[in-house]
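Posting for a labmate who doesn't have an account.
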Amino acid sequence: MVEGGTDPLPGKRWQLRETATIYADAKRLLTKLQRQVDEDQQPKSAITVRHAITQWLDVAELGDTTRERYDDLIRLYVLPTFGDM
């Protein structure tokens, strides 16, 4: 397990984990995880696309017709495909 920083949305610690059955594999995985953290390649948040879009829509400054159009497009196309990712 490697500490990846703090998830900015819920404020919880972010940890990267891998499992291995032998020591050599565990050392290799640890190096890989540490490199991901060092190169800033780890995910920053564990939230779903649905949650991120909802939060964005709450703060986005959109006109009425734009908001309606975005709501329709998100409901029809984005959330069914990517909502739970």
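Reply:
Got it, the structure tokens are right above this. Residues 49-82 form one domain.
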